[in-house]
Every structure is written in C-alpha cells, then in structure tokens.
Amino acid sequence: GSWWRGGARAPLPLPSSAQTSRVSLCNRDYLRSYIAYLTTLLQEQAAYHDTRHERENSLHHRIHLLTGVFFVLAAICTLGHVLSHGSEFALYLAYGTIGLPVFAAGLHAINGHLEAARHASASLNMSRALKRMTTELDAIGHTLAAGAQEGSTVEWAQVARIQRIAGQATDAMMADVSAWYRLVAAQPVTVPS
Q: How many helices (H) and strands (E) does the chain have?
C-alpha cells in the first residue's frame, strides 16, 4: 500500500464548520468500506511487525546463546589446560582459552551493535498499538452497522474517531519508517583514541 503517502488519511471527508453534530453527507457504506480498507492495512502492518519481532528476538537470543556457549567452552578449555599442563593437548586447549573469549566478545559486540532486542521490542509495541487501533475500528464498524437505517445519518463523533485513528496509524508508521531510515543511513565512524 501507499500509506506513507497519506493514503490512510486522504479518502476521509472532513466536515466543514457549518455542519452540525450529525453528518448527513457521510455515506455509511463509504465509511464501512474505508474502515475495512484501514483495518486491512493495519492488520497487514501488525502481521509484519509480529514477524519482525519474532525474527529480531530470535536473532538476539541465538547470538546471546552462542556467546554464552563460547564463554563456557573457554572456561572448560582453561580448566583442561591447567589440568593437562605439559601434555600434547595443552597447546590446543591454550588456543581455545585464548580464541574462544575473543569470538564470544566479538559476537557480544555484534549483538549490541545490531540492537536486535530493541528492534524486537519496538516491533512488539508497534504491533500492539496497531491491533488496538484495529479493535477500535471494529467497534466503530459495529456501531455503524447497528445504527444503519434507511435515511439515517452518521454521528460526527464516529467520523472524528475514524479520522483520529487514521492519523495515529499514519503517524506511527511514519515514525517507524523514519527510525529505520536513521538506522540504515550512513553513520560516521569514530576511532577511539
């Protein structure tokens, strides 16, 4: 979809100040179809963020687990080196004692730089927010369906709620895109002195 170009906001009519608390110009069928469109968009985005949360969380935990395994293996190598000092395996155990913590520290740094845990948390929060908006849209849709009568008007409050949700959804998704842009933009390299 083209939600980033304001697609979620654009189709909804804005009432003029001359209109009263009841808007007769808004067609219930149009509002229901707009709610369906917006709900689908939000559900797709929530599904994306659910998948992203699981992927980032899994990546973070796997790297963390591998880091721990390397440190445990280094401890075993250290103990083995001390106990087998002078044997033919002592040299190989010394390599493990030296090399495995280096690999573990490198993985730990990579895990910190990837910020997978933070991205997983952000995706989970975004998914929850989008699902709350979807639930609110469903409630509005049920209200519109329950009040549908021949010639009935639409409460302006319902139109305003839909407009507010569309604005919140667009703002949330644009903030997510902006955060990703800042993440992948060229970062200055600093060399510690």
A: 4, 2
